[in-house]
Design a protein that fits this description.
- This protein has one domain: Alpha/Beta hydrolase fold, catalytic domain (Rossmann fold, 3-Layer(aba) Sandwich), CATH 3.40.50.1820.
- The protein is built from 11 helices and 6 strands.
- It has a 6-stranded parallel beta sheet.
Length: 223
């Protein structure tokens, strides 16, 4: 049995994974969605990595999955304990010592987002409905409002404390309809930083909410 440690992005809500968890469990595996203290001014990436590590203590076959900003936490977990694999979903892929705050300019994220909006014919100005919720069922989106918290500055200011990318099997997967981190951006960053290709699944930036079955099938296919 594989344990999937599911790490959310900015805001830290384990709720993000609530449609994926039961599907993983129905397949006979364990899913641990980790709640991160995004609104705690004293918590940053080291504390996030410690929480994820503690959440799967005692498990042997662990795959760590990080969504969006969770990509900064995932490799730090692999430094702290043995893992069977890493999966990065629509994720920020860090360089050793990089901060999440510096990542945006370093990879040209904003330019890629605006260019994709122009090509796709949707608004360039950022708003949640256009960039995060455009393919999420409105009832699902509404149920998540109570779980939303702001991400404090400390999480963006603490570096990804790794010397090199962990030597474990790593998969990078993008939502084919991600408007926030367009697939072209994700492919370029994965190639330049990790030398990896990018797989795709249906859905946008919040693919675990809009297409949980397809995403779960992808996660399980790697086991």
């Amino acid at each position: 049995m594989t344990t999937f440690a599911l790490v959310p992005g900015a805001g830290g809500a384990a709720w993000y994974w609530h449609r994926v968890v039961p599907l993983i469990e129905e397949a006979g595996h364990e899913a641990v969605a980790v709640e991160l203290p995004a609104d705690d001014p004293d918590a940053g990436l080291p504390e996030y990595a410690d929480l994820v590590t503690s959440a799967v203590e005692g498990r042997d076959d662990v795959v760590v999955v990080g969504q969006s900003m969770g990509g900064f936490t995932v490799p730090m977990v692999a430094v702290r304990r043995p893992v069977a694999g890493l999966v990065l979903l629509n994720a920020m892929l860090p360089l050793p010592g990089e901060t999440a705050g510096a990542w945006w300019d370093a990879v040209g994220s904003e330019g890629a987002r605006v260019a994709a909006a122009r090509a796709g014919g949707y608004p360039e100005e950022f708003d949640l409905d256009t960039y995060f919720l455009h393919d999420v069922d409105p009832a699902v989106a509404e149920s998540g409002e109570e779980h939303q918290r702001p991400e404090v500055d400390r999480a963006f200011e603490t570096p990804c404390d790794i010397v090199t990318w962990p030597d474990v099997p790593t998969r990078v997967v993008a939502g084919a309809g991600d408007r926030f981190f367009p697939v072209g951006l994700q492919r370029r960053v994965a190639r330049e930083r990790l030398g990896l290709d990018v797989d795709t699944v249906p859905g946008g930036h919040l693919a675990a909410l809009s297409h949980p079955a397809e995403l779960t099938a992808y996660l399980l296919a790697g086991r």
